[in-house]
């Protein structure tokens, strides 16, 4: 099965990046969100990414326009009634995702594959709300999507080999490197990454060092390209908190307990780069 047209749900940092790479691969895509404002912001992000490619001479102005023309903005999920595949990239919340998948199952054609970009939530549980669990799969991109090569592909309990293969081939078409992982909380990437970020937040919370110094230690000492707290700001502190909660609940081990400072920042609306403030301040 070849994927000719798609829908991406959620036009935030991940959804807009996914729509961009899909359109760049020649696939028509509906980008859906709940408000026009969010859609326009997402499209703005795509446009400035592509502008940068033009400035660097990697793409012509005409190519940019062709790519942008493949992206159609919509607030109506029902526009997905003829798509071959959906990638959901709404907030990291099980109830929200279950509602979206229930709706998608009703609307999309029988053959459509329903993928989620969840960072940590069980694919099998999301699949269970549909009548097509064999066509539900995790397709976990990294941030920023146009730059990062990895895609974790996660099979739910019922996902068929055929569906896995289509999604694997799609990842290659998007010029990504797919890695197959099993359906456990946090998969591989966030099971390893997030406890490190959470621990970095604890070191600030306990007054061991400032955010700048924690990041400096990890950059210079471990050769990480970016410190864990800056990375947390880029991921989104709300997303980090949801992932830690999923690990904590999923494994039942207190070593995954989210740092109270992370909770406090999220409650304050300090969500990192996307809200202008997290461990650092950002120009909006
Ligand atoms: P974000 O906060 O930037 O964007 C989420 C978007 O989803 C918002 O525009 C919001 O309006 C929209 N949304 C919320 N409910 C919706 C609904 N019912 N229908 C349609 N749209 C809805 O979040 P971000 O960072 O893009 O994350 C999205 C998903 O991708 C989450 O599941 C997250 O765990 C996952 N992810 C995030 C990564 C990151 O580094 N931020 C990396 C990999 C995966």
From TrEMBL:
Q: In which pathway does it act?
A: Lipid metabolism; butanoate metabolism
Q: Indicate the segments forming the 3-hydroxyacyl-CoA dehydrogenase NAD binding domain, all copies.
A: 7-183
Q: Name one GO molecular function term.
A: 3-hydroxybutyryl-CoA dehydrogenase activity
Q: Name one Pfam family in it.
A: 3HCDH_N
EC no. given is 1.1.1.157
- Which enzyme type, at the first EC level? oxidoreductase
Q: Where are the transmembrane segments?
A: none
SUPFAM superfamilies recorded:
6-phosphogluconate dehydrogenase C-terminal domain-like, NAD(P)-binding Rossmann-fold domains
Task: Name the UniProt key words of this record, in alphabetical order.
Answer: Oxidoreductase
Q: Where's the 3-hydroxyacyl-CoA dehydrogenase C-terminal domain?
A: 186-282
Q: Which PANTHER family match?
A: 3-HYDROXYACYL-COA DEHYDROGENASE FAMILY PROTEIN (PTHR48075), 3-HYDROXYBUTYRYL-COA DEHYDROGENASE (PTHR48075:SF5)
Listed NCBIfam families:
PRK05808.1, PRK07530.1, PRK07819.1
Q: Which family does it belong to?
A: Belongs to the 3-hydroxyacyl-CoA dehydrogenase family.
Q: What is this protein called?
A: 3-hydroxybutyryl-CoA dehydrogenase
Organism whose genome encodes this protein: Caldalkalibacillus uzonensis
């Amino acid at each position: 099965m070849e994927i000719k047209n798609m829908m991406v749900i959620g036009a935030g940092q991940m959804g807009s990046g996914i729509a961009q790479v899909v359109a760049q691969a020649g696939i028509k895509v509906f980008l859906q969100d709940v408000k026009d404002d969010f859609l326009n912001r997402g499209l703005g992000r795509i446009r400035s990414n592509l502008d940068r490619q033009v400035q660097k001479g990697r793409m012509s102005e005409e190519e940019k326009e062709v790519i942008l023309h493949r992206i159609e903005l919509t607030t109506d999920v029902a526009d997905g009634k003829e798509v071959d595949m959906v990638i959901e990239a709404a907030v990291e919340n099980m109830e929200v995702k279950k509602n979206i998948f229930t709706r998608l199952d009703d609307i999309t054609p029988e053959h459509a594959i329903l993928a989620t970009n969840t960072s940590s939530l069980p694919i099998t549980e999301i699949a269970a709300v549909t009548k097509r669990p064999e066509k539900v799969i995790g397709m976990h991109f990294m941030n920023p999507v146009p730059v990062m090569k990895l895609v974790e592909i996660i099979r739910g309990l019922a996902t068929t080999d055929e569906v896995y293969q289509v999604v694997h081939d799609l990842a290659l078409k998007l010029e990504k490197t797919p890695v197959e992982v099993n359906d456990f909380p946090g998969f591989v990437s966030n099971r390893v990454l997030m406890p490190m970020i959470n621990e970095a937040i604890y070191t600030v919370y306990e007054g061991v060092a400032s955010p700048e110094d924690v990041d400096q230690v990890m950059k210079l000492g471990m050769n990480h390209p970016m410190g864990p707290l800056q990375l947390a700001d880029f991921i989104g502190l709300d997303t980090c908190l949801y992932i830690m909660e999923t690990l904590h609940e999923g494994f039942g081990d207190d070593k995954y307990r989210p740092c109270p400072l992370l909770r406090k920042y999220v409650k304050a609306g300090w969500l990192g780069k996307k809200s202008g403030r997290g461990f650092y301040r950002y120009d909006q």
